[in-house]
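Give me C-alpha coordinates for this 161-residue protein.
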Amino acid sequence: MPVVRTWRRGAPEPDPGWEFEVRARRSTRTAIVVAVVIALAFTAGGLVLRTGSTGVNFRVADQVAMILIGVVGACAVLMLTRPRVRAGSRGVAVRNILGEHVYPWDYIRGASFPDGKSWARLELADDDYVPMLAIRANDKAHAADAIERVRGLGAHYAPQS
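Here you go.
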Protein backbone atom coordinates (compact mmCIF):
# COMPACT_ATOMS: atom_id res chain seq x y z
CA MET A 1 0.00 0.00 0.00
CA PRO A 2 1.55 3.37 -0.99
CA VAL A 3 2.31 6.00 1.62
CA VAL A 4 0.11 9.06 1.26
CA ARG A 5 1.83 12.30 2.21
CA THR A 6 -0.40 15.10 3.41
CA TRP A 7 2.24 17.70 4.16
CA ARG A 8 3.99 20.22 1.93
CA ARG A 9 7.11 19.23 0.06
CA GLY A 10 10.15 20.44 1.96
CA ALA A 11 8.27 20.68 5.26
CA PRO A 12 9.23 18.35 8.10
CA GLU A 13 7.16 15.21 8.48
CA PRO A 14 4.20 15.60 10.85
CA ASP A 15 4.71 14.63 14.47
CA PRO A 16 3.04 11.26 15.14
CA GLY A 17 1.49 12.57 18.38
CA TRP A 18 -0.87 14.80 16.43
CA GLU A 19 -3.80 13.37 14.49
CA PHE A 20 -5.19 16.62 13.15
CA GLU A 21 -3.73 19.94 12.04
CA VAL A 22 -5.54 22.99 10.70
CA ARG A 23 -4.49 26.40 9.42
CA ALA A 24 -6.56 29.33 8.23
CA ARG A 25 -7.04 29.48 4.47
CA ARG A 26 -8.45 32.84 3.40
CA SER A 27 -6.52 34.99 5.86
CA THR A 28 -3.30 33.20 4.92
CA ARG A 29 -3.80 33.89 1.22
CA THR A 30 -4.72 37.50 1.95
CA ALA A 31 -1.65 38.00 4.13
CA ILE A 32 0.63 36.61 1.41
CA VAL A 33 -0.87 38.93 -1.22
CA VAL A 34 -0.61 41.96 1.09
CA ALA A 35 3.01 41.11 1.97
CA VAL A 36 3.96 40.89 -1.71
CA VAL A 37 2.24 44.22 -2.46
CA ILE A 38 4.03 45.92 0.45
CA ALA A 39 7.42 44.54 -0.61
CA LEU A 40 6.89 45.57 -4.25
CA ALA A 41 5.60 49.04 -3.36
CA PHE A 42 8.52 49.83 -1.07
CA THR A 43 11.00 48.39 -3.56
CA ALA A 44 9.53 50.50 -6.36
CA GLY A 45 9.52 53.53 -4.08
CA GLY A 46 13.12 52.91 -3.09
CA LEU A 47 14.24 52.53 -6.70
CA VAL A 48 12.64 55.76 -7.88
CA LEU A 49 13.58 57.72 -4.76
CA ARG A 50 16.55 59.48 -6.38
CA THR A 51 14.80 60.35 -9.63
CA GLY A 52 13.18 63.76 -9.89
CA SER A 53 14.01 67.00 -8.16
CA THR A 54 12.22 67.26 -4.85
CA GLY A 55 14.81 69.50 -3.25
CA VAL A 56 15.93 66.67 -0.95
CA ASN A 57 19.22 64.88 -1.53
CA PHE A 58 18.50 61.14 -1.32
CA ARG A 59 21.43 58.71 -1.32
CA VAL A 60 21.81 55.02 -2.07
CA ALA A 61 21.59 54.31 1.67
CA ASP A 62 18.14 55.92 1.69
CA GLN A 63 17.05 53.70 -1.17
CA VAL A 64 18.32 50.58 0.58
CA ALA A 65 16.62 51.65 3.82
CA MET A 66 13.32 52.15 2.00
CA ILE A 67 13.52 48.66 0.50
CA LEU A 68 14.46 47.14 3.87
CA ILE A 69 11.49 48.86 5.52
CA GLY A 70 9.27 47.18 2.93
CA VAL A 71 10.86 43.80 3.63
CA VAL A 72 10.37 44.22 7.39
CA GLY A 73 6.74 45.27 6.84
CA ALA A 74 6.13 42.28 4.57
CA CYS A 75 7.66 39.94 7.16
CA ALA A 76 5.43 41.43 9.86
CA VAL A 77 2.35 40.77 7.71
CA LEU A 78 3.55 37.21 7.04
CA MET A 79 3.47 36.57 10.79
CA LEU A 80 -0.32 36.38 10.31
CA THR A 81 0.20 33.11 8.41
CA ARG A 82 1.61 31.34 11.50
CA PRO A 83 -1.59 30.35 13.37
CA ARG A 84 -2.11 26.61 13.58
CA VAL A 85 -4.09 24.19 15.73
CA ARG A 86 -3.00 20.58 16.23
CA ALA A 87 -4.90 17.98 18.18
CA GLY A 88 -4.15 14.41 19.14
CA SER A 89 -3.47 12.13 22.06
CA ARG A 90 -1.30 14.77 23.77
CA GLY A 91 -4.04 17.40 23.78
CA VAL A 92 -4.44 20.54 21.71
CA ALA A 93 -1.53 22.69 20.58
CA VAL A 94 -2.52 26.25 19.72
CA ARG A 95 -0.01 28.41 17.87
CA ASN A 96 -1.22 31.93 17.30
CA ILE A 97 0.98 34.74 15.99
CA LEU A 98 3.67 34.44 18.68
CA GLY A 99 4.42 31.20 20.49
CA GLU A 100 2.69 27.85 20.85
CA HIS A 101 1.02 26.34 23.89
CA VAL A 102 -0.01 22.72 24.40
CA TYR A 103 -3.08 22.07 26.52
CA PRO A 104 -3.67 18.49 27.77
CA TRP A 105 -7.15 17.06 27.40
CA ASP A 106 -7.78 16.98 31.15
CA TYR A 107 -7.39 20.79 31.21
CA ILE A 108 -9.79 21.42 28.30
CA ARG A 109 -13.55 21.81 28.79
CA GLY A 110 -14.44 22.22 25.13
CA ALA A 111 -14.06 24.08 21.87
CA SER A 112 -16.59 26.63 20.71
CA PHE A 113 -17.31 29.10 17.97
CA PRO A 114 -19.14 31.98 19.69
CA ASP A 115 -21.73 33.85 17.61
CA GLY A 116 -20.34 36.95 15.95
CA LYS A 117 -16.71 36.10 16.65
CA SER A 118 -14.05 35.87 13.95
CA TRP A 119 -12.33 32.75 15.29
CA ALA A 120 -12.95 29.72 17.47
CA ARG A 121 -11.77 29.35 21.02
CA LEU A 122 -10.59 26.60 23.31
CA GLU A 123 -12.37 26.65 26.66
CA LEU A 124 -10.17 25.70 29.61
CA ALA A 125 -10.93 24.24 33.04
CA ASP A 126 -10.17 27.45 34.94
CA ASP A 127 -12.96 29.41 33.17
CA ASP A 128 -10.43 30.86 30.78
CA TYR A 129 -10.28 30.50 27.02
CA VAL A 130 -7.66 30.61 24.30
CA PRO A 131 -8.43 32.04 20.87
CA MET A 132 -7.63 29.66 18.02
CA LEU A 133 -6.76 32.04 15.18
CA ALA A 134 -6.30 29.14 12.77
CA ILE A 135 -10.02 28.34 12.83
CA ARG A 136 -11.56 31.47 11.32
CA ALA A 137 -15.20 32.20 10.54
CA ASN A 138 -14.43 33.41 7.01
CA ASP A 139 -13.25 29.88 6.11
CA LYS A 140 -16.88 28.71 6.52
CA ALA A 141 -17.12 24.92 5.93
CA HIS A 142 -13.38 24.44 6.54
CA ALA A 143 -13.76 26.09 9.96
CA ALA A 144 -16.88 24.07 10.81
CA ASP A 145 -15.11 20.82 9.91
CA ALA A 146 -12.06 21.83 11.94
CA ILE A 147 -14.01 22.65 15.10
CA GLU A 148 -15.94 19.37 14.80
CA ARG A 149 -12.66 17.44 14.45
CA VAL A 150 -11.28 19.12 17.59
CA ARG A 151 -14.50 18.32 19.46
CA GLY A 152 -14.43 14.73 18.21
CA LEU A 153 -10.87 14.21 19.35
CA GLY A 154 -11.80 15.79 22.68
CA ALA A 155 -14.63 13.31 23.10
CA HIS A 156 -12.23 10.49 22.32
CA TYR A 157 -9.25 11.55 24.48
CA ALA A 158 -10.72 13.65 27.29
CA PRO A 159 -10.96 11.86 30.63
CA GLN A 160 -14.49 10.69 31.37
CA SER A 161 -15.95 12.22 34.52
